[in-house]
Amino acid sequence: MAKNFDVVVIGGGPGGYVAAIRAAQLGFSTACIDEWKNEKNGPAPGGTCTNVGCIPSKALLQSSEHYEHANHAFAEHGIEVKGLSMNVGQMLARKNTIVKQNNDGILYLFKKNKVAFFHGRGSFVKGDANGYEIKVAGAAEETITGKHIIVATGSNPRALPNAPFDEKLILSNTGALAIDAVPKKLGVIGAGVIGLEMGSVWRRLGAEVTVLEALTTFLGAVDEQIAKEAHKLFTKQGLAISLGVKIGAITAGKKDVTVEYTDDKGNAQKAVFDKLIVSIGRVPNTIGLNAEGVGLKLDERGFIAVDGDCKTNLPNVWAVGDVVRGPMLAHKAEEEGVAVAERIAGQHGHVNFNTIPWVIYTSPEIAWVGKTEQQLKAEGVAYKAGTFPFMANGRARALGDTNGMVKFLADAKTDEILGVHIIGPMASELIAEAVVAMEFRASSEDIARICHAHPSLSEATKEAALAVDKRSLNF
Ligand code: FAD
Ligand code: NAI
After folding, report:
1. What sign does the CA torsion over 376, 373, 448, 427 have?
2. pLDDT tens digits for 85-130?
3. Where are the alpha helices (DSSP H) in 353-453?
4. Spatial distance between the Cα atoms of 109 and 360, rounded to a whole number of angstroms
5. Which ligand has the shortest distance to the CA of 102?
6. Alpha helices in 118-218, H assignment, sequence order
7. What is the pTM of this model?
8. Does ligand 2 have an atom closer than 6 angstroms to the CB of 466?
């Protein structure tokens, strides 16, 4: 295999593998190095997202939702289920198959696009504006060179200082996605995205789930009205969410974990769990990269320091995805990867941070793009709001999924859409229309005047846009 490349990408997650494909499409000789191993020590490109993130979590969310529907929703449709049971082993096997399909899909894409794949850990040896030597430590050790280097080494779960992950009792996302029997009592520290998604999976399957959150505000980054609705619905579903707690000692026994904490009233509490998921955020991963050896600058939080174009302090070295500032989302990493490859080619790659959508895949799903109402208030922006509840949407009624709403926020003067917030069925899909609208700097009236299929959930989007001008037709 060739050893000298125009572009070498370190890391094969969504940021790295997409950057490599785009660079190859643009005519560069390209290599991608990734160290992730499957059970058989073979390559498993796709990063956190494919192996222990987006993909496996959505697989388990789907399985557990089917189970919950069979348990609680089928009867209403006249479907009678007797002797329903959950085979957790089969659910995990299905998830593993989906992960492998994605790993293999990326290897196929590398072949198709003539990206040279190296399985092992990549680290800087030396280099300058003329090129860099990168050591690949895999089954064998070799050195390759790249004129441009794109670092996409991702992130790792943040552990509590007094509770290292053992992945048996104290679980990061990796262990949380591989629990092999429904725990009776599951503790979750951190009511963020992972805590709520994973907590939902195991609650649906019958676990008693307690979520302990340090902040006094629930989902602080989410529009307040939507977050309030989410808190109400999740609590009704049976997630016990305690806000404003201060976590104290965590003691792992043989079969359970004891968590001592102070509740929001200052009372000392103690809870014993069969498993404990710690989901308190993630930290950038630069382990083993030899950043210091070549003078690659990190910021004070350990992220690789980059400018708005993902350029690092070293000439022709770029960094994208979770290892740099900005939201830790797969699609953000991908967009940065594409933009960097295009910039290397002298094109004008661009990532619009204002229109990056967020989705939390709970039930109901929560999705948003743009500003929240509290942000607009804080910024002193004059705005109009319009909401429409799924309760008044025919398709949602037919689906039996009427919780939630769509909310539009538009500029009071120009009517430009400033934010769209959805809690409800298929919010993850519905938000795409809002993203397109905001990219084209549409007004709420633009959406209100577009013909939406009937009956469809997207009519709730149109109706919320109409509501900005106080002229909903169906509510
Ligand atoms: P990563 O995906 O972390 O990939 C980095 C890769 O680089 C890894 O394969 C790693 O092994 C490799 N690597 C690191 N160092 C080296 C080295 N020195 N040499 C060689 N290889 C190296 N985001 C969403 O948008 N939607 C979701 O639904 C979603 N769900 C998630 C669920 C969970 C449980 C978790 C944990 C995360 C989720 N995320 C989701 C976040 C998403 O996974 C990340 O934002 C995304 O994976 C970041 O991509 P990346 O390419 O920057 O890094
Ligand atoms: P998070 O940042 O979403 O949530 C962490 C939560 O833990 C916060 O609410 C925080 O206040 C709380 N916390 C922090 N320290 C604490 C402590 N000592 N005690 C109690 N609570 C504490 O992080 P999470 O859930 O770990 O996920 C990491 C990242 O992965 C997300 O920010 C997101 O970028 C990505 N992700 C995205 C998903 C999606 O797009 N659907 C799904 C899962 C993860």
Report:
1. positive
2. 999 999 999 999 999 999 999 999 999 999 999 999 999 999 999 9
3. 373-379, 394-399, 427-439, 444-448
4. 28
5. 1
6. 173-176, 193-204
7. 0.98
8. no
Active site residue 454: yes
Task: Kindly compute the dihedral angle of the four CA atoms of residues 60, 65, 66, 69, in this order, to the nearest 10 degrees.
Answer: 160
Judge if the upstream peptide bond of residue 364 is cis by omega within 30 degrees of 0.
yes
Residue 228 to residue 232: CA distance in whole angstroms = 6
Give pLDDT, residue 1.
Answer: 66
Statement: residue 181 has pLDDT above 90: yes
The alpha carbon of residue 51 and the mean position of all alpha carbons in its chain are separated, in whole angstroms, by 13
How many CB atoms are located within 10 Å of the residue 97 CB? 11
pLDDT tens track for 183-206: 999 999 999 999 999 999 999 999
Q: What are phi and psi of 134, to 5 degrees?
A: -125, 125
Does residue 152's CB lie within 6 angstroms of at least one atom of ligand 1? yes
Q: How far apart, in whole angstroms, are the C-alpha atoms of residue 31 and residue 146?
A: 8
Alpha carbons 406 and 419: distance in angstroms, whole number: 11
Mutate to test the pocket of ligand 2, among 160, 262, 280 (most ligand atoms within 8 A of CB): 280
Residues 6+ apart with CB under 8 A from 296: 124, 151, 289, 304, 312, 313, 314, 317
CA distance 448 to 468: 9
Strand partners, 399: none
